[in-house]
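Same chain as my last thread, 250 residues:
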Amino acid sequence: MPDTAGSLDPKYKRVLLKLSGEALAPTTTGNKIGIGLDETKAIAEQLARVVQRGVQLAVVIGGGNLLRGEQFTAGGETKIKPATADYMGMLATVMNGLALQDTLEAMGIETRLQSAVRMETVAEPYIRRRAIRHLEKGRIVILAGGTGNPFVTTDTAAALRGRELHADVLLKATKVDGVYDDDPAKNVYAVKFKTLTFDQVIQKQLRVMDIGAFEMCRQASLPILVFDFKQENALEKAIAGHPIGTLVSG
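reply #2:
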């Protein structure tokens, strides 16, 4: 039965969405490297519908579709230092941010791209108070450049920005529809959790986010919703409080 407009009324006012770079990757190619225009448009359409419902939306964008720092450091001898590789990955997130920004603005949605790595000719520097002001004005704030520091994941950047911007929930968009007790791709009997507490995640040693990001959310009692972004109206349903994915809370 289709969702009615009322059933998608937002439960959360201010949302931090962690969006992987892979979400923008073309699905028609085997290696899924690069930025797919159709995929980026599909994501932008979901984001647009959410802000049109009055939700204040910030997006932390990854860069894995263009470059991953570990590809230069995994095995064998390399001349690219890990810190340099991580900075290269941060630049990839800015490229994704620019693509998403232009796609949204072509739809008439006002946005601001902010980067933790300063590059004023293409993006605003990340300033917490300015980001909050943009959110209050109904603009989508796209947050690129991670935290601006190497050796830190975009999961940690999402947790940090979620706390800084006083988000009501951190939405982690993934390729699976929640948190399982085992890898569902390898174990057909893996059990999905609908809800979890932070303590249960630790006790069961479940991989929700990297440990630094998870602890940051736990300390602030910032709920984490892990869900499959590719499902129809997934973002709208998640923000409306529908029982999709896995909700981790206090």
